[in-house]
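All the exercises in this workshop are built on plain-text protein records. An example says more than a description, so a record of this kind follows:
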Amino acid sequence: MLSFPNHTPRERHLTFATIACVAFIVLLMLRGFWFIQSDDCYIFYSYAKNLASGNGYVFNIGERVNATTSPLYTILLALLYTALRFLPFISIPLLGHLIGAVSLFFLCYFLLRSFDSEREFLYPFILPLVFLCTPFLARAVGMETFLAMMLGMMALHFYVHEKLVAASFASSLSLLARPDMLLLAAVLVVYDFARNRHFPTIKMLAVFMLPVGAWLAFSLLYFGSVLPSTFSAKLVQTEIGLWGSGPVFFSGLVSGEAWFGGRAVGRLLGITMFLGVLVITAKWRKWSLLRHPVFHLILLWQVVYLVVYGIILDAPAYEWYYTPLALSVALIVALPIEFIYRLLSDTKTVPNWILQPIIVVVLVLTASIFPVVGLQQPTSSTYINYRDATEWLNTHAKAGESVATNCIGVVRYYYDKGPVIDGVGLVTPAVVARLKRGEFDWYINHYQPDYLLFQQPPFQKVEQMAHEEWFQAEYSLERIFRTRWHAAALYVRRNQEN
């Protein structure tokens, strides 16, 4: 995989320099982004924990509900934990971060190799580094996103090197890593037909359908449904106005919430992308890389992605939903760098042997900013409060007592006394229909949870019942868990009070 027999000495040096720089940045991200412990990734960790413990593919023991969008990520976590848990430092969250780091490394590798035919440009060698500079990546730490993107990039790599069966298999795995990777697979099929008049062969279809079909069959038999419960649960959040009004997905993209570093970084990136579009306009006929299949495929995929997420679904503005866009951003942002490099190189202003290392060093330093800043950050406040609340529950709750909350991941991962009830329906599907009717307190009256864990102050709509008289008559505030940036309130049913 790492042999480059057709490369010139210059190209080999640049290739190995790029790989070494990518490895350094990814390792720095692994350490610098450890403070990011989002609640949603703990949903995967909880499923993997139960699977590795022999309890089945479940969130709550005995309840066959699939709230994971990535069976591949979940099963991989469980397998690795089963194989490595004899090591005292191994934990499922650590494995989640490691899978993400390894996926990022190989994503960059396949991005580099996919543009192999454009080695006379500096572009293929700086593209992975520009990708690692984008501010979208930190938001997906711990999630399945990097694994899915890596497999999608692997499929494009195989496609451009005319290994179509391997591309089909990689596409199938990417779909098992995240369902929306079906968009890339569809774009790939349509593009290949439009460009080469090729239909997928029976072998390609079989290789694609076998893994996906096996999971769908298992899902239907085991869960009673082929679709995860998260689809309807996530979409209902925009329907009931939990994310505000208007085009929620696009609002999240431009508001700065999706950017690690805020609006200032977004503006800088927007200016650079505008310059990249100008380069495309000026150099479309002259630069072969702008007509490269992978360049087209990534941009087409991401346009379709934006249309589906932003217009058709109007998906909620979860930060990691924007992470795949880092690929198209990198494609465009790298173009002005290539333009400046060629301008200085052609005019002999700066010798290439000086210019190339300068560009690489600047990109490495830029990509290092976010993880270095992350080294100074405390662990996520929400994670700390919900973990501490769960540890309190493990000490004081009785066996079999239930906890209801709207942030279920951390609670489920650490709580060992009883079931966790989901107030927004990810793992409690019956809640979704009630949310559509505005019955935000239905799950409390129906399931009668022994404990409730809310944000403090209560989150809009789905936790506002904490102010109502009936709630205060049935539940009392046990205690508040507080960090500098976040607080969580634990309520106990009054007939459960000691």
DSSP finds 20 helices and five strands in the chain.
